[in-house]
Amino acid sequence: MITGKQPPVTEEVRELARLVWDYHLLGHSLENSHAILVLGSHDPRVAERGAALWLDGKAPLLIFSGGLGNFTAGLWEEPEAVLFGRIAREMGVPEEAMLLESRSTNSGENMRFTRELLKSRGLNPHSFIIVQKPYMERRAYATFKKNWPDKSVRVTSPQIAFEQYPNESISLEVIIQSMVGDLQRIREYPKMGFQIHQDIPGPVWAAFERLVALGFDQHLIR
């Protein structure tokens, strides 16, 4: 959880953060798939994006995966998947089109517990659309491919630009802290067996190091 006084967001910080944001975005074009898998988070706009894709006919099955994680434990009273499922129902997605996985607390568990849930229902989708926050697209892809290397996957997120993404619930400071931490995980997690390897361009890693030096270090693994 990211709390407390945050470093100032100067113009230098904004420029560095845009560089990291752009790296996290994959820019995948979406194809009709067997399932839409929405990963839990503290941002309900992710659920709205997943539900909109189902309503657009991108896949017949909509899965929400998420218990209470790093950002929602102690703040939300119900699992992320339950809240996201309710948002989807309110948008017009029928109950029978959805599956809820409400135990997972991190990205690896999202994949593992969803796979177990699908197996228990006798389902074996071969192609997925993953929905996550923009600044977690790349990490979601790397985690999925580590856990499901034989499946086809595209990744997307709420279609909102960097400048417009902060709102009353998620500040720009928290977004930057999260992006910095996730970039470190993209580098370190393959060594731990959690994700596939992905190259990080030199200027992006230099931006990471500068942001950490400026105090954006609350979401780092220690």
Automatic annotation (TrEMBL):
Family matches, as InterPro entries: Cell_Envelope_Assoc, DUF218, Rossmann-like_a/b/a_fold
Pfam entry (one): DUF218
GO annotation, cellular component aspect: plasma membrane
Chain ranges of the DUF218 domain: 35-152
Protein name (Swiss-Prot/TrEMBL): Uncharacterized SAM-binding protein YcdF, DUF218 family
Organism: Cyclobacterium xiamenense
